[in-house]
Design a protein that fits this description.
With 382 residues, the protein is an alpha/beta fold. It folds into two domains: 248 residues, Periplasmic binding protein-like II (D-Maltodextrin-Binding Protein, domain 2, 3-Layer(aba) Sandwich); 103 residues, D-Maltodextrin-Binding Protein, domain 2, CATH 3.40.190.10. It has 14 helices and twelve strands. A seven-stranded mixed sheet has the order 1-3-2-4-11-5-12, with helices on both faces. Helix 6 links the parallel strand 7 and strand 8. Helix 4 packs across helix 5, helix 6 packs across helix 13 and helix 8 packs across helix 12. The longest helix is centred in the last third of the chain and has 20 residues. The N terminus is likely disordered. InterPro entries: ABC_SsuA_sub-bd (IPR010067), NrtA/CpmA_ABC-bd_dom (IPR044527). Keywords: Cell inner membrane, Cell membrane, Membrane, Signal, Transport. Pfam families: NMT1_2.
């Protein structure tokens, strides 16, 4: 099944600021885990690089023609961006062709996974938790980590000079129930302020706004700031915003999961060798990124340009890249904490996350590579 275009991202209008405000207002009315209408993400452009092409004489894994992979156009999904651009997934997959779809937020990617539009995806922790619990533990498994950090609260310095000034202001998050939305709602509660999680109204107005729209909405004055991932955070800084808070400072050791790798349980059971090949590609990509940060940064930006039609300028790319830590470790203990945050915010009933992880194949790949294995914090498949 081919993933269709994501709905809900408005075109650039003639009367830009007016329609941006309408788009932001419409985003605020989205129900919990609202999906991008019937679209399950945007099919990546058919712009196969030489590195992505199937090598001559390569064989299919398990006789499978294709594996469908999803990711976001965010630098927090650097593993997927770089692995695709450098052909590192395709290299491990042989003649089983990697096909890709891009998404703007996690809930729509979960819907794509559930529908079979994708098989494997890079995604944030909150959608992973919601997808798992709403399916009674039957839809997905988290099979690896990818990134930590890369999330910031960026504000208009003319309107907000300190953390206490956030009260009474309009602050964007990417989508109701997504990872940054949950983190911001939790932070608001820790300040002693009250906000209705569903409507976003209260002591702070939480505006659910697509990352593609947020910088323009901020520039137009419709937003006072945003709690967002990279590179959106650095785009706001380039528009005159100021980083008021880096979310990593709120976590022990400044580490928290921002991107996981998930797989459909059905696909994992049917094609474990294909899943293992993708994980080999992921581990190899992460190793290459950490050994070659400048080349990896350029590769990620090139893939973003292919996917969106526009590369990031240096004043956005450089600070954004520095704030992200690439890791194979899913940082499972922080997933539990993020689930607790969603419960406190009223977005989720207390979840049973037992079995959400299956790190068997990842640890097999890590051992073969001479790397340290990773832990599931007691939430693995028994």
């Amino acid at each position: 099944m081919t993933a269709g275009p994501t709905r809900g991202t408005p075109p650039v209008p003639a009367n830009r600021s007016t329609l941006i405000r309408r788009a932001v207002a419409a985003a605020a009315a989205l129900p919990l885990l609202a999906l991008a209408a019937c679209g399950y993400g945007s099919e990546s452009k058919d712009d196969t690089s030489a590195k992505e092409k199937v090598a001559a004489g390569a064989k299919k894994i398990d006789g499978l023609d294709t594996v469908k992979i999803g990711y976001f156009g965010n630098l927090t999904h650097a593993t997927a961006l770089v692995g695709r651009q450098e052909g590192l997934f395709q290299k491990e997959l042989g003649a089983t062709k990697a096909e890709y779809a891009t998404f703007n937020a996690g809930p729509s990617e979960i819907e794509a996974l559930n529908s079979g539009s994708i098989d494997i995806g890079w995604i944030g922790p909150s959608p992973s938790i919601n997808g798992y619990t709403k399916s009674n533990g039957k839809s997905l498994r988290i099979i690896g980590g990818s990134a930590s950090g890369g999330v910031k609260l960026v504000v208009n310095p003319k309107k907000i000079k300190s953390l206490k000034d956030v009260k009474g202001k309009k602050i964007a998050t990417p989508q109701l129930g997504n990872t940054q939305d949950v983190a911001f709602l939790n932070w608001i509660a820790e300040q002693g302020w009250k906000v209705d999680a569903q409507s976003g109204k209260g002591d702070v107005t939480v505006v659910r706004s697509d990352n593609k729209v947020t910088p323009d909405a901020y520039k137009a004055g419709s937003l006072d700031g945003a709690w967002v991932p990279e590179p959106t955070a650095s785009k706001l800084v380039a528009e005159g915003g100021k980083v008021l808070l880096d979310e990593s400072t709120l976590w022990p050791d400044k580490k928290f999961v921002i991107t996981n790798i998930i797989v459909s349980q059905k696909f994992l059971k049917a094609h474990p060798k294909v899943v293992e090949a993708v994980l080999k590609g992921s581990v190899g990509t992460n190793k290459w990124i950490n050994a070659n940060p400048d080349e990896a940064k350029a590769a990620a930006n090139k893939q973003l340009e292919t996917d969106s039609g526009k590369a990031l300028p240096a004043d956005v790319l450089d600070p954004a890249w520095k704030s992200i830590q690439i890791t194979n470790d899913p940082l499972a203990s922080t997933l539990n904490t993020e689930a607790d945050h969603a419960v406190k915010a009223g977005l989720l009933s207390k979840p049973d996350l037992s079995g959400i992880y299956d790190l068997t194949l990842l640890n097999k790949v890590l051992k073969a590579d001479g790397a340290s294995t990773v832990d599931d914090a007691g939430l693995g498949v028994k």
